[in-house]
């Protein structure tokens, strides 16, 4: 459908004699569609998080605005956008304004390479995995500059914690993906899914440990509980976004949820067979996109369930867990996978 | 005098290496301080060098007010001393006054008081459990705790019409007899509640992250604890038998069977365990009280004007939800107390915070503060 | 050990250090210490095995303007003996000074700060004597009986 719109627009441009600019149409249309789609999806996720948490806490959750409270998030978003933008007087202006934008853009850009269906992704990069990991780690800059520029002690502590945390958990995150890359022999997310199709199994089966490490590190990367120390409410009030309100806060919020979507989407693509149907259900007339979204929601549900079950780790325990547990295990995992490839010619 | 005060205020100690200390003001408005407690925390990175509690943001001069009210009028103010556990303070004041004047409440009133105070202990411990878990990042137990607390509050509301400040336990008895359906409802609640305790324990007690956060954190050794005046469940977590209900029985606590819950480690987890076990003990005490509740008058006939004997004084202690609750009354032969002092558990428990948190991380302040179960209105009064 | 026994024992053990010992009608043992030996009395009451009053349950003061004195009242509790003791010491109202018992019971630190804050009794040797409840620049001592303030009205009896 994206292509259809893009084609129509290109023809329209050609008709008014501007066919030279046709090359910009595709990215713009993709961006608009992605942005709209993702924003709606995030709103749905916020609603889902509320409902999930309500269910876990024996509450009802939002049920007043719209059917089942579905429009609650829309109302909240409207409220956030119309709110007064309160700024600290002694802020460091440029980083203060740039931070929410980076937080949003960096995570949002990660969505580009995610294949939603066979061959359907905004840009089919052949270094897709590398790209996602590197672009999403830009959020650390956003959080650090937000923490620094707010001129608030809690925000600064939050920013520092976040920097340490994201740098530490980046390592196991990448390392958990390495065995898959070694087995599939590609960095292209599309090809990873196609490899799983050909091989007849999803990587979650042979690489279950890697999957667990990935989910854990991804939760930490997205600053979600139990790894939410950068914004630990009971210690640091709001952490790095203490001093943000209104639209800027909304952008951080949006960024956080998009980070969850991106991480979950990578997990789905790499470990859960992306758009592939569940085993024995391949004959059902369900499009690949629906399979993808269903798996995505499952992974996101997992991450949400973590948040509402566990207490929060302390900052040093978090580092210990990353460096002393996750990284050794993932290195071991890489080694074992390497040996398997060496001796059996393919991954476990 | 003011000069003396100002000279006594300590300024930040100069650091040797010329680096600034990172001084963070936790509170008085902060999500984790359970009210308006202010902590000035000196940090070295994430490590706490010194914690200085600053009190007084909730000081309502209740003791001064009580000196200018008659004894029955004071009861209303005792509700506000610890509004999370108002029944206990009601009881502490009522008992102190009765001992001062040589009154005795009838048996039914005593059993009713025990029922109410134990129910209040359940409610308070449930709220504490939720807040403690919330302090270290688990938000779900809070809702679980409040779910059951709500039912207890409903029982209170059924009895005295109030949900927070009950003003139920009066001098010489209780405000009003319970409704006939109170006892079956209370029993039904206990039957419903007992399996729920397992649910909380499942969620928290052996959760690896919870253990990681609470085991070995904020250790109070028995000697330090006694010397610093720590009391109640917080001290029992260090293995010191200090339950006033056992040591200096009041009401009919010597007639019911219950265990004093002791743990030995003295860390946050032990204090958590003590309180969770106390919840079970309270349920058992409640069942015994309900069994022994017999019809009869619910208050004694009081003299028309309550006057304390001249130059009399009493220091009466009870075990409130947070620990030892003492009321010191000095009577001067008039209808008003000459001196009224509330000795509150939270006040002393907050005092050890500095010793417990030095060298730990900033997140541990919250864990320790939560595990001590301090309530700011009780600290400030 | 009953109250009477404790009273006689304290009377014989510390006869030079105390002014009086009595069992009140409310069945509490109340002893009044001499200010000069107050500190050593506290230390002995804590350390001597037959007393071991290790727990300072409460420390407060009472104002007696008519007798021109203020009384510092310590309520001690012995976990070992399950015994309660009220220890009093009088201070002059015009120049209220008394040694601190902070080094005997740590918990006295805040108790004494509170008494200083509300009564203005100066505890000599206290490590951190400053206001605890009232604002730091406050000049009055609210729990003294002659306290007056704009917003404070005493109802007539």
**CATH homologous superfamily of chain C - what is it?**
NADH:ubiquinone oxidoreductase Nqo5 subunit
Q: Estimate the mean pLDDT confidence of chain A.
A: 82
- Bin the helical content of chain C: 10-25%
Number of helices of chain C: 3
Order of helices and strands of chain A: HHHHHHHHHHHHH
Per DSSP, what share of the residues of chain C sits in E-state strands of 2 or more residues? 25-35%
Rg calc of chain C:
16 Å
Shape of chain C: globular
Tell me the number of structural domains of chain C: 1
CATH topology group of chain C: Beta Polymerase, domain 2
Structural class of chain A: mainly alpha
pLDDT < 50 runs, ≥5 residues of chain C = none
Number of helices of chain A: 13
Strand content of chain A: under 5%
Largest interface: B-C, 52 and 46 residues
CATH class of chain C: Alpha Beta
Helix content of chain A: 55-70%
Rg of chain A (CA only):
21 Å
Largest sheet of chain A: none
Distance between the termini of chain A: 39 Å
How is this structure best described in words?
- The complex is a heterotrimer of chains A (348), B (381) and C (157).
- Chain A is an all-alpha fold.
- Chain A is built from 13 helices and no strands.
- The mean pLDDT of chain A is 82.
- Chain B has helices at residues 2-8, 62-67, 71-81, 86-101, 107-135, 140-160, 182-204, 208-214, 222-227, 233-236, 244-247, 268-292, 345-351, 353-357, 362-372, 376-380, and strands spanning 22-26, 38-44, 47-54, 169-170, 173-174, 312-320, 323-331, 337-343.
- Chain B starts with a helix and ends with a helix.
- Chain B folds into two domains: 2-51, no CATH class; 58-380, Cytochrome-c3 Hydrogenase, chain B, CATH 1.10.645.
- Chain B is 49% helix and 13% strand.
- In chain B, β4 (169-170) and β5 form a beta hairpin.
- Chain C is α/β, with parallel strands linked by helices and 157 residues long.
- Chain C has one domain (3-124): NADH:ubiquinone oxidoreductase Nqo5 subunit (Beta Polymerase, domain 2, 2-Layer Sandwich), CATH 3.30.460.
- In chain C, 21% of the residues lie in helices and 30% in strands.
- Chain C has three helices and seven strands.
- The longest helix of chain C has 12 residues, at 108-119.
- Chains in contact: A-B, B-C.
């Amino acid at each position: 459908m994206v292509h259809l719109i893009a084609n129509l627009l290109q023809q329209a441009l050609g008709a008014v004699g501007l066919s030279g600019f046709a090359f910009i149409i595709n990215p713009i249309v993709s961006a608009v569609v992605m942005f709209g789609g993702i924003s709606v999806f995030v709103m749905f996720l916020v609603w889902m998080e509320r409902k999930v948490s309500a269910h876990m806490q024996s509450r009802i959750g939002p049920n007043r605005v719209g059917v089942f409270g579905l429009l609650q998030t829309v109302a909240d978003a409207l409220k956030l956008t119309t709110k007064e933008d309160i700024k600290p007087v002694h802020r460091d202006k440029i980083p203060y304004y740039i931070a929410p934008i980076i937080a949003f853009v960096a995570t949002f850009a990660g969505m580009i390479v995610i294949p939603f269906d066979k061959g359907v992704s905004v840009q089919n990069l052949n270094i897709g995995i590398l790209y996602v990991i590197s672009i999403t780690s830009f959020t650390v800059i956003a959080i650090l500059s937000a923490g620094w520029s707010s001129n608030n002690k809690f925000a600064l502590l939050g920013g520092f914690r976040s920097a340490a945390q994201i740098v530490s958990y980046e390592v196991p995150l990448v390392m958990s993906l390495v065995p898959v890359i070694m087995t599939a022999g590609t960095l292209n997310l599309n090809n990873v899914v196609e490899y799983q199709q050909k091989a007849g199994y999803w990587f979650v089966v042979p690489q279950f440990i890697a999957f667990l490490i990935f989910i854990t590190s991804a939760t930490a990367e997205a600053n979600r509980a139990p790894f939410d120390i950068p914004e630990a409410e009971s210690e640091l009030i709001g952490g790095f976004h203490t001093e943000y309100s209104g639209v800027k806060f909304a952008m951080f919020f949006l960024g956080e949820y998009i980070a969850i979507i991106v991480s979950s989407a990578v997990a789905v693509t790499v470990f859960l067979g992306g758009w592939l149907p569940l085993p024995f259900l391949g004959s059902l007339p369900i499009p690949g996109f629906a399979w993808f979204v269903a798996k995505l929601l499952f992974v996101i549900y997992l991450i949400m369930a973590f948040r509402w079950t566990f207490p929060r780790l302390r900052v040093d325990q978090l580092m210990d867990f990353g460096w002393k547990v996750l990284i050794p295990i993932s290195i071991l995992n890489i080694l074992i996978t390497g040996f398997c490839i060496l001796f059996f010619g393919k991954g476990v | 005098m003011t000069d003396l005060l100002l000279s006594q205020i300590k300024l930040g100690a100069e650091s040797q290496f010329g680096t600034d200390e990172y001084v963070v003001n936790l509170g008085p408005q902060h999500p984790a301080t359970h009210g308006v407690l202010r902590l000035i925390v000196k940090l070295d990175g994430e490590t706490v060098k010194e914690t200085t509690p600053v009190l007084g943001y909730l000081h309502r001069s209740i003791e001064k007010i009580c000196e200018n009210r008659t004894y029955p009028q004071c009861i209303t103010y005792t509700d506000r001393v610890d509004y999370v556990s108002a029944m206990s303070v009601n009881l502490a004041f009522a008992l102190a006054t009765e001992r001062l004047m040589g009154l005795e409440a009838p048996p039914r009133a005593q059993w009713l008081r025990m029922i109410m105070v134990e129910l209040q202990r359940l409610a308070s411990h449930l709220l504490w459990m939720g807040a403690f878990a919330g302090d270290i990042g688990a938000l779900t137990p809070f809702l679980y705790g409040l779910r059951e607390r709500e039912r207890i509050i409903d029982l209170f509301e059924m009895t005295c019409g109030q949900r927070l400040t009950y003003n139920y336990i009066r001098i010489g008895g209780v405000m009003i007899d319970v409704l006939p359906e109170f006892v079956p409802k209370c029993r039904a609640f206990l039957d419903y509640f007992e399996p729920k305790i397992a649910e909380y324990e499942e969620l928290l007690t052996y959760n690896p992250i919870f253990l990681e956060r609470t085991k070995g954190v904020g250790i109070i050794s028995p000697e330090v604890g006694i010397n610093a005046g720590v009391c109640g469940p917080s001290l029992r977590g260090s293995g010191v038998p200090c339950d006033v209900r056992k040591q200096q029985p009041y009401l009919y606590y010597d007639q019911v069977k219950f265990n004093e819950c002791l743990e030995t480690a003295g860390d946050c987890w032990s204090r958590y365990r003590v309180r969770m076990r106390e919840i079970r003990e309270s349920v058992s005490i409640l069942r015994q009280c309900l069994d022994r509740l017999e019809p009869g008058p619910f208050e004694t006939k009081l003299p028309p004007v309550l006057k304390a004997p001249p130059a009399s004084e009493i220091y009466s202690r009870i075990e409130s939800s947070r620990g030892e609750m003492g009321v010191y009354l000095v009577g001067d032969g008039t209808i008003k107390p000459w001196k009224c002092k509330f000795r509150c558990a939270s006040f002393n428990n907050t005092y050890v915070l500095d010793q417990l948190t030095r060298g730990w991380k900033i997140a541990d302040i919250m864990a320790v503060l939560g595990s001590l179960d301090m309530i700011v209105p009780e600290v400030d009064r | 050990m009953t109250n009477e026994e404790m009273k006689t024992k304290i009377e014989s053990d510390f006869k030079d250090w105390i002014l009086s010992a009595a069992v009140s009608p409310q069945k509490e043992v109340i002893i009044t210490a001499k200010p000069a030996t107050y500190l050593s009395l506290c230390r002995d009451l804590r350390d001597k095995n037959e007393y071991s009053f290790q727990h300072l349950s409460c420390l407060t003061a009472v104002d007696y303007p008519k007798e021109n004195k203020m009384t510092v009242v310590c309520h001690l509790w012995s976990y070992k003996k399950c015994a309660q003791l009220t220890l009093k010491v009088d201070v002059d109202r015009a120049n209220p000074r008394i040694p601190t018992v902070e080094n005997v019971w740590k918990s006295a630190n805040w108790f004494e700060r509170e008494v200083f804050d509300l009564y203005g009794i100066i505890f000599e040797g206290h490590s951190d004597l400053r206001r605890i409840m009232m604002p730091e620049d406050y000049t009055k001592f609210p729990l003294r009986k002659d306290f007056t303030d704009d917003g404070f009205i005493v109802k007539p009896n």
